[in-house]
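Lab notebook: predicted structure, single chain.

Context: the supervisor wants predicted structures on file for every construct in the current expression panel, including those that have not yet been purified. This is the next one on the list. No modifications to the sequence; it matches the entry in the shared construct table.
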Amino acid sequence: MDNIILTLLCIPNVGRKTVLYLIESIEKFPINESELLEIFISSKLTNKKIYIPTLDEIKKAKEKSNDIILNSSILNIKYIDILNEKFPKSLKQIKDKPVMLFYKGNYKCIEDQKTINIIGSRKASINGLKEAYKLGYDFGKDKYCVVSGLAIGCDEQAHKGCLDANGNTVAVLPSAIDKIYPYKNNYLAEKIIENKGCLISEYPIGKNISKNQFIERDRIQSGISKSVLLCESSLKSGSMHTIEFAKLQGKIISCIDINADGNEAIKKDKRCVIIRNEKDIKELKNKINNFKSCENMITNNIQRQIKFEL
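Prediction complete. Output recorded below exactly as produced.
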């Protein structure tokens, strides 16, 4: 089959968890629709929650998968799945790991060893926005890859700062790459690609955006980064989801010493690097440079998945 992961995701009632369950239990990957159906049937014996699609649903899913790949190629959008050895190792380790990424631009940015996720509120103060820009510029100038979410506000300023420093920046989208969100930042997305940065999304072209995708995106932002740095946020801001994901993933957390509820809450965490001056920024950079993650501690299941790269 052309791409087993995308085909599976195109089948009704099949999501990431089902896909992971199936590929962890498959000894031999199917070469046609009938063999794939047999895998669903046998998996149902060990997991009653598995949905068994019809042969027609599988055939339609394969056709849809091929259409997505073809139309993505026309738009210069590429894809990589969890079976590929170049899929980000850091994402293979997180809870609720993605099984496929779509990207446009320089994929090497995602593999960068010096990555920092700079985030903050869409409604940040002027001071918060200035700090986001300054940090984006500072880290970009020193050849760190700045990761953010392309949102209006702090994300936008972090990207701009990095670009103005001629650095590489990655935008993790809550939308499909053919439907940039927010639309207002289409121009910024284009500048990111022009400057050898990258746009990435978990979602195939043509998919409409939904509320849950904003939170889902956050786990990927922190997942591909060594550190998450909060510029300014309220406790109810979406940025706090990213901080929580970062904590769960064992990433370095940091925040600007600014008067905001979210920042005050994070500052209470003993692991937090509080940014007050240049010395603190240098400390954070040193932590990123020396960061040891579990990226090389790949489980046997993941190792087995890589062997089945198509």
